[in-house]
């Protein structure tokens, strides 16, 4: 799970590397990010 306000972090990239090395299919699901200042 990613925080839209933080963006992709170094930790997120490390997890992505581990998942990529597993050779399994990976799905990234995106839900809207609520931000009243941007709406």
TrEMBL record:
Matching entries from Gene3D superfamilies are given as:
P-loop containing nucleotide triphosphate hydrolases
Domain of life where this protein originates: Bacteria
Matching entries from InterPro entries are given as: P-loop_NTPase
Query: What is the protein's given name?
Result: Uncharacterized protein
Q: Native species of this protein?
A: Candidatus Berkelbacteria bacterium CG_4_9_14_0_2_um_filter_42_30
């Amino acid at each position: 799970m990613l925080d839209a306000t933080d963006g992709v972090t170094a930790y997120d990239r490390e997890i992505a590397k581990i998942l990529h090395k597993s050779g399994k299919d990976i799905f990234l699901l995106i839900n809207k990010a609520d931000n009243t200042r941007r709406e």
